[in-house]
Structure formats: structure tokens, C-alpha cells
User: What shape does this take?
Amino acid sequence: MKIICIGRNYTDHIKELNNQRPSDPVVFIKPDSAILPKDQDFYLPEFSKEIHYEVEVLVKIKKVGKHISSKFAHNYYDEIGLGIDFTARDLQTSLKEKGLPWEKAKGFDGAAVIGEWRSKSTYSDLNDIDFSLHKNDKVVQKGNTGLMLWKIDELIAYVSQYFMLKKGDVIFTGTPAGVGKIQANDYLSGELEGERLFNVKIR
Ligand code: ZN
Assistant: This one.
């Protein structure tokens, strides 16, 4: 399976400003080895002094598709989740400055936290789901899928132009404002519509 991540998919500004969105979503991939095994602690890697959390709503693809139109995208997923796109920000910044790819900063071991999955039918409107990240039991990020610049179905349409989607692929749909640094002994947990879907201890 592959993990397809979307960058810059939220604006701090209200919906009326959505017309200023960039012309295309930012897309990158994490390898499947980036998945943090369930119930395993996250170990801060030695190559970075600045690991950031990014809480994101996840979508699990249920069947093969390419060139999917956004009108039919809903047929390609049944499950919604929540996770963290861990990012070595210092490394990402230096790679960006050199115009180099981000993979080392985004695809390292443990950099993809994938929480429990919920049926999409749990939610009456997929474009109005609240989610949040808590660090040491204090809210550090809060978002709502209604504030996405590209909604889930639009993202599936967009990315499937470039990458054939396969059963089990996971899309990270981008993070809202409030990203920040973690340190050893921090404890992160994520909630989707008030329901806790993951806990991660930092080592
Ligand atoms: Zn992200």
C-alpha cells in the first residue's frame, strides 16, 4: 500500500477566502515503512532536532481506480480515520531551500500515525467533521473538514490522475493550523468528532 499526503489544504481564513487557494494541491508520498506500528511509542530520530506533529483526517481507499471523477469518488472509500503526519521540520526546511525532495523529512520510520478507522456512515456530513490533537491533554490543533481547500472527493479525483489508487491506500488530507514541536515524554492523542482514535507516546 502507499500513503498519499496532501500539503497546504487548510487556510486559517474563513471560507470566503477559499477562492485564493493555490491552483493545485501539494502532493507527496510516504512509504508503507513509515507507518508507526499500532500501540508502539514514537522514537525521536537522531537526524532531527525539530519533529512536528500534523494531525490529519485520513481516508482509506477500498478499490482500484484511476482518473476517478469527484462525482464518483465516494464509491472508492468506506472508512475515515485520523492520524499524524510527523515531519522533521528542520530537515524539510533545508531540503526545500535546496529545491530537493522532502522524503527524508516526511517518510522516515514512524512518521505516519494511523489511528482506528470508522465507517464513513458514522458521519452525517463528511464535509463537517471536527477533529483535534491533544498534547499532554491540552488541545494543540483543532480543525473541521469543512475548512479543507480541496474536499475528500476532490482530492481523490486529483491524486488519481497521477497515481492509480489501490485497495488499502491511505490519503492524509492535510493539516490545519497549530502544528508544533514534540519532545521526549510528550503524549499525543487525536479525536474525530470527540472520539479518541489514537494515542502516541513520544520517546
Ligand atoms: Zn501533513
Observations:
- Residues 5, 7, 54, 56, 85, 172, 174-175 surround zinc ion (CB under 6 Å).
- The first strand starts at residue 3 and ends at 7.
- Residues 3-201 form a domain with the Fumarylacetoacetate hydrolase; domain 2 fold (CATH 3.90.850.10).
